[in-house]
Amino acid sequence: MLKFILKKIALMIPMLLVISLIVFLGLRATGVDPITYMVSMEVQAQSPELVEELRESLGLNDPLLVQYVRWLGDLVRGDLGYSFEGQKIADIIAVRLPYTLELSGYALLFSSIIGIAIGIVSAIRQNGVVDYIGRVFAVLGQAVPQFLVGILLIQLFSIKLGWFPAANRVDPNATNAFVDAFLHLFLPVATLTIGMVAVLMRYARNTMLDVLNSDYIKTARSKGIPEWKVYLKHGFRNAMKPVLIILMFRIPGLIGGSVVIETVFSYPGIGLTMTNSIVSNDYPTVMVITLIIAAVMLICSFMVDVLNALLDPRVRLGE
Amino acid sequence: MSEVTNVSIKEQNKSAASSLLKKNIRKFLRNKLAVLGLVIVVGMVAACVACAIAGVDYATPDLTNMKSAPGNGHLFGTDTIGRDLFARVMFGGCYSIFIGVFCSVVSGIIGAVLGAIAGYFGGKADMVLVRISELFQTFPQLVLVMMLVAILGTRGMVNILLIFVFTGWMTTFRMVRNEFLSLKGETYVKVCEAFGMSRSNIMFKQILPNVMTPIIVSTTTNVAVYILQEASLSFIGLGIQDSTPTWGNILNAAKSVAVVTNQWWIWVFPGLAITLFVLAINFLGDGLRDVLDAKQQ
Amino acid sequence: MKRILALVLALTMVLALAACGGKPAETTTGNPSESSGQTQTGGDSLRIVLSTNDGSTTDDRVPTPWMNHNLATNLMFRTLLLADASLTETSPDLAESVEVSEDGLTYTITLKEGLKWSDGEPLTVDDVMWSIETVMTAVRRNSIYSAAFGMIDTMTADGNVITMTLTSPYSEMRNILAQFAILPKHCLEGEDGESIDTCSYWTDPVTSGYYMVGEFNVGNYFTLVPNPNYEGTAPKIQSVTVSFVNDFLTAAQSNSADFLYGNATDLVEGMAALDNYTSIPVDVLFYKYFIFNMKGIDGNQNEAMQPLAVRQALAEAIDRATLATLYPNATVINSGVPNDHEAYNGFEYTFDAEKAKADLAASGYDMSRTLKICYYNNDQTSVDLINTVVYYLQQAGLTVEATLSNDGTTDLFTTRDYDIGFKGLSSFSMGEWYAEYASNSATFANIFGGDTTFDAAIADFNAAITTEERNAALTELQELEQANLYKFPLFTIGNYVYVNNRVVLPEGVEFCNPLFVNDIDYENWTLS
Predict the structure, then answer these.
(1) Between B16 and C140, whose confidence is greater?
(2) C35-65+209-282+499-527, what's its fold?
(3) Contact across the interface for B139 and A30, Cβ inside 8 Å
C-alpha cells in the first residue's frame, strides 16, 4: 500500500512540471509585455533606456526556457514573485486561499450531507413523494445559473430582509468572530450548495438504485434480513464508493464555481483574485494560482486513487 | 404454424428488436418527467429555430422605447437599449443550444474514441492517454479561456467551442475506458479476436455498443452543462462578445442591480429560458437512463 | 475493514477542508480599533466604501492619493492648499500662503509652523519638495501633476519657505497644488517609482490629516482612528470604516455605506429608489468621447481614417442626442468647452443618417472593410452605448466590429488595432481635455502621431491668466479641434454624491468631482 501511495505521489511531480511549463509558455505566447503594466506610458515614451534597463534586470531578454527555469527555481525556493500591481504573490495567496478553502469546504460538507441524504431516500422510496420533490428541487438548483441564484439571494436576504451582509468576509464592526463568519458565509455557501446538491443527489440516487437492484441485495432480502439492515449494511456501503469518488471530482468544479460566486459576493478569496488577474492580464498571479488549483486537483485525484485502492484491492494489484 | 417456423433468424431478431424498441418507448412514455423534458426540449428548439428562420429582429435598438415592460408589441418587453427581448431570447436560444449540443457531441465523440483506445489497448497507450486526461482535468478552464482569447485576440464563438471541447472530453473518456477495461476480458470479445476480426471492428462495432447507454445519457446532460458554463463565462466577462445574443450574454443584464430590482423582465425571461431548457434536458437524460439501462430491466 | 477505513478517510478529508478554512490567517496590522455597534447601522463610525471593480483600487492597501482622490485618503493626506467645490478658489492648508509673482513665473510657498506627521516626525519643506520631485518618477500618477510640475525650473527651500520658478507661466499651478497630496519623505524615500504606491507603507501609512489607519484587514476593510498629531480642529466623528466592495449600489441598498458617488445609469436609478440617501448633483467635467486612431509616433498610419471626410461622415452617422438618453444626466458637447460655457463657439456636429451615407460614399471609404471599435468600460451602459453606435454605423452601410478591451491603455495606445476608440475622462479642467492634443502627450501622441498643430494654442491656454485671455485661447482650441476631428466629443455626464441620512452635514457643504479633493467642512460632520 505504501509503495502504491509513494508511486502516486511521485507521479504528481512531473504532472505539475508539465502544467507549469504549459502555463508559462501559454501565457507568454499571449504577448503580454509586463513592462506596459509596470511603467506608465509617459515614462515609456520619455526614457526608453530606463525601460530597457528594467527589461534587462527583470531578465525579459533571456530565452524563454531560461526564464522558465528561473521562475521555477524561485517558485521552489518559495519566492512566488510579484503581481503586476506590485503585491507579493505569496501574500495574496496567504490571505485569500484560506478564505476560499473555508467557502468551498463548507459548501462541500453541506452539499454532500444534504445531497447524499436526499439521494438515498429517493432511491429507497423510488417514485415516492420524497423522490419527486427532492429530484425536482435538486435539479432546479442545478438548472438555474449559479450567479443568478447568488444575485437573487442577495436581493432577498441582504437587501429586502437585511439579514445577511451583501459582500466581503469580515465586518469592521463585528463583535463576535463566529457570528460574523456565519453571517458572511451563509449566502455564498448556500449558493454553492444549491448548485452542488443536485449532482450529488442524482449520483447517490442512481448508484443506490443500482445497488438495490443488484443480485446480492435481492439475495439478502430473500434471506429475510430486515429492510433497514439491507439498506444500511449492503446498500449504503456499496453505493458510497462511487459517490465518494464523484465527491472528490466535484472539488475542482467547486473551485470553478467559487470563482463566479466570489465575484457575485465580493468575497475576497482566490477565485476573485483569479478573475481579476485574468481580466487585467496579470499573468504572474495567474500562473501561481493556476499551479495551486492544479495541485489541489492532483491531490484530489490522488485521494480518489487511494480510496479506490483501499476499497478494491484489484486496482492496486492491477497497477 | 408453418408460417412461424419459416421466419428466418434475422427477421426474428428484427421483430425482437422492434418489440424491445416498443417496450422501451412504452417505458419512456410512462416516465412523465422524461416526456415533459422531451416536449420542452423539442418545443424550445423548434421555436428558436423557427424564429431565427423567420428572421426576427433582435438587433435594432430603440432608445425611445428602452426598458419597457412586456406588452405593446413586445411580448417579453424590451432590454436596456430597447431591443425586443422575445426576439433576443429566441435567437439567443439558437446560439446557446448550438454551443451546448456541438460541444457535448464533439467532446463525447473524442472522449469515447480515446477511451476505447486506452481501455482496449491498455499498456503505454493507456498510460499516456490517462496522463493527458489528468492534465486537462487539472487545468483550470478559465486560464485556457484567457490564453486563447489573448492569443487569438477575439472573443468569438470558436474560442468557446474549442475550450469546452478541450476541457470536456475527460469524463466520457474515463467512463468509456473503465467499461472497456472490464469488457475486453469478456468471452465474446475473446471469440471475436479468435475469429480474427480487426481491432477497430472489435472496439467500435462489438464493444462500444455495450457502452452506448452511459455515453448517450452523459452527452444529453452535458448539453445543459455547457449552456450553464457559457452563461458563467459571460458573467465574469470572458464569454462570447456582447454583440452575439447568447442566453448568457442576455442574462448578463442581471449584473446591474438596478435592472434586477426594477426591470424584472430583462433577466427573468433569459433566466427562465436557461433554467427551463436545462431542467428539460436533465429530465430527458434521467428518462433515457431509466429506459436504456439494462440493469434496471 | 478497509471500506470503513476508506469512509473515515474520506470524511476526514471533507472535514479537514472545512476546518482548515475555518480559521483564515489573521491578517490585521496595526492597533485594532474599538469595535462597536451592529452590522447594519454602523454604530458611531462613518462608513466609506471603495470600489475594487474599476481597476484603480486593490483591496490590500490604501490607494495612492497621487492617482485619484477618494474620501478616505482625503481624510488622511493633506495638500498645500484647499480647493473649493469649483476647484479654482483655494484657501491655506499645509501652506500658510502661496504667492505668485507678476509674470507668473515665481511661486513662493510658505509652510505653516509646527506641522507633524501622525508618527510625531515634523512635516517640513523637505517633505513637500521630495513629494513634488518624486511624483514625477512614480509610474502610477495622475497626469495633471506631471503636466504642472514638468514646468518647474528650479526649486529651493529656506526655512519654511519654498521658492519655485517655472519655465513658462502655468495658470492652473495653484489649483494643482491644491490637489497634490504631500507624502512623508522619511517613510517612502527608499522606494522607487514602481514600488512607491505598492510598498508595505500603504497598509499603515503615516498621515498628515484627521485620521490614520487603525486596523487593516486585507480583502475586507480598514478603519481610521484620529491622528493624535493633527494640529487643527479634530473631527466630531471619532471613527471611520472603509470597506472594499464590488458594487456601490448593493452596498447602499443593504444600507452599509454612508458616502458614495457615481454616474452610472444603474447606480443613479437604483439610488433614486432609496429614501435613506440624499442625492447631491456635482459639477464635473466627465467627458465621454470617441478617439480616432490616426497615426503612431513611429509614423505608422491608419490609412482608412486619414481623410477628414471619412471622420466627418462617421460623426454624422451617430445620433448623440439619443445616445445621451442612456445616461441619467448627459449633456451633448461639441468640443472640450461645454455648450453653456461663455467661450463655446457655437459649432455643432449634426446627426443626419442620409447625409452620412452619401458623404461616406463620396469620401472613397472602402465599404467592404470592417470598421473596428475598441472600448474598455464593461458596465452595462457603456456596452449599451457601443451596441447602439454599432447599429448606427451599420445603418450607414458599414461592417462594424466592436471589441471590449481588458486593458484600455495598452490596447488604445500601444496595440492600436482599431479605428475608433471609446473613452471617458473625468477631467480636472478643460485644460486636461486639450492637453491630450499636445504633441508631447505620453499617450495620445501614439495615436495622433505627435502632431504639433495644437501646441501653440495649448501653451497660450496654459499661460492665460485673465478670463479674456483664457476665453480667447479656448476659442482658438475649439476651432482647431473641430477642424481636425481627432476626438469626437459625445457628452459630459453628470455625477452624483450620495450621503446616507444618518450623516448630518453642516450648512453650505459643496462637493467637487469625487476623484479630486475640496473643502467639505468635515470637522463638523456628525452622525445621528
Answers:
(1) C140
(2) D-Maltodextrin-Binding Protein; domain 2 (3.40.190)
(3) no
